[in-house]
């Protein structure tokens, strides 16, 4: 059975990756502007002073404009840095901060490394996803970094996954280690799906 679930996840990820690669630059630009507006509203609604976010790749709904603006507003934003042991280090975002290619070719900040527990003090986690279903289950990209992070946090704050509108689906394949999210942020809306602090 686990093999069937793993196969279903791989197939869905491949389909979603292909769909993202077909998007035009204007569609991606519009998505980034929409996500920034949605995230701005979310941090205001939750009264966020400290949060984590990720630096979007070229095919993800853009988060970089939001990160720059949040730092400019005085919000402390922690950005993830992948480690070979499956955990995430964190670095504080700075205005115009340098970006390098991380372990898996993903954009990561260049700066002082804070250990995995640095994220325990944030008010909000904003994480990437391939898809999320209506119960709040998230399909990641298969490396498990964010599932480990969320699963290890005591008193986990709200967790929102950033996806395109079409990636909120009825159901995603799930395994025992998969962690739900509180909600999703898309270019057009923010939807609460499951209670925070699971």
Automatic annotation (TrEMBL):
Coiled-coil intervals, chain numbering? none
Signal peptide interval: none
Cofactor(s) it depends on = Mg(2+)
Per the UniProt entry, what is one GO biological process? folic acid-containing compound biosynthetic process
Keyword Nucleus appears in the UniProt entry: no
Enzyme Commission code(s) on record: 6.3.3.2
Where ATP is bound, by residue? 9-13
| Catalysed transformations (reactions) | (6S)-5-formyl-5,6,7,8-tetrahydrofolate + ATP = (6R)-5,10-methenyltetrahydrofolate + ADP + phosphate
Record-stated family:
Belongs to the 5-formyltetrahydrofolate cyclo-ligase family.
- What this protein is called in its record is 5-formyltetrahydrofolate cyclo-ligase
């Amino acid at each position: 059975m686990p093999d069937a679930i793993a196969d279903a996840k791989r197939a869905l990820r491949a389909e979603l990756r292909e769909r993202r690669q077909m998007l035009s630059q204007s569609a991606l630009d519009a998505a980034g502007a929409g996500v920034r507006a949605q995230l701005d509203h979310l941090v205001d609604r939750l009264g966020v002073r400290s949060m984590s976010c990720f630096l979007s790749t070229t095919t993800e709904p853009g988060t970089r404009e939001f990160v720059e603006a949040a730092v400019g507003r005085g919000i402390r934003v922690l950005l993830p840095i992948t480690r070979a042991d499956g955990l995430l280090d964190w670095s504080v975002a700075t205005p115009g901060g340098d970006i390098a290619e991380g372990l898996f070719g993903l954009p990561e900040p260049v700066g002082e490394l804070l250990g995995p527990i640095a994220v325990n003090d944030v008010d909000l986690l904003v994480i990437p996803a391939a898809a999320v279903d209506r119960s709040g289950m998230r399909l990641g990209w298969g490396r498990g970094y964010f599932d480990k992070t969320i699963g290890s946090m005591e008193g986990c704050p709200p967790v929102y996954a950033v996806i395109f509108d079409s990636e909120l689906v009825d159901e995603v394949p799930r395994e025992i280690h998969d962690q739900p999210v509180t909600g999703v942020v898309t270019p057009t809306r923010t939807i609460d799906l499951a209670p925070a602090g699971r």
